[in-house]
Amino acid sequence: MSQKGFEEISVHDITALADVNRATFYDHYTDKFALLDAMVAGGFHKLLAERNVMFDGTCPSAASAIILATCDYLTATHADPQDCNRNSAFEPLMEAGIVAAIRRTLLAGIENKAVPEGLTPEIVATTAAWAIYGAVKQWFYTPNHQPAAEAVQPIMNLVFPILATVSSGAPHSSGALHEPVEAELTAH
Fold it and tell me: Which domains, from first to last, does the chain contain?
């Protein structure tokens, strides 16, 4: 992408540069967008692995480490402002890839937990992933933003209540988790 913007790159360009044939490419990826998603996810998951971050659904420090990793990943992938400006169409693709990687990481820790009625672990993980990314993106684009380590706790204060909706009961249970929400809604 140093020579062409993502939208200008073809599968032929990718296979020629990688010295693989198109059939091999399509055996692994449906299109260049799937390749990008795999690259973004791989980079983010590599960062988490280097930091030994695993989320089991109960540990606030692991969620904090995911937030910090998101700050660091966004900072690293946007290190060259000239490249980011030239590839503005690339930004939503990166965003979707990062959110998907955060979602997969969170879902691994909550997929077997109980959630309030009407929700699924997938909905909780997706909501938390977008909340994390959205808050980190706002932090990143705020002029003279505070250091990433200082941004983690305020973001955590917003995100952890979403993750705290799950419990270690039977998967997808209803009942007690749903009642406080109902009571709160009828009180207003």
Answer: 6-187 (1.10.357)
pTM of the entire predicted model: 0.77
Fill in the DSSP letter of residue 168. Answer: S
Residue 62 contacts by C-beta under 8 Å, 6 or more apart in sequence?
Answer: 53, 54, 55, 56, 109
Outline where the chain has alpha helix (H).
11-18, 22-28, 32-50, 60-77, 81-86, 91-110, 121-141, 148-163, 179-187
The residues, ordered by sequence, that sit 6+ positions from 183 with a Cβ below 8 Å of its Cβ are: none
Backbone angle region of 60, left / alpha / beta, with phi > 0 → left and psi within -120 to 50 → alpha: alpha
pLDDT in tens, 147-170: 999 999 999 999 989 998 887 654
Distance from C-alpha of 95 to C-alpha of 66, rounded to nearest angstrom: 15
Place of tokens 């020629």: 16
User: Encoding tokens for residue 26?
Assistant: 């399509």
Q: How many residues does the chain have?
A: 188
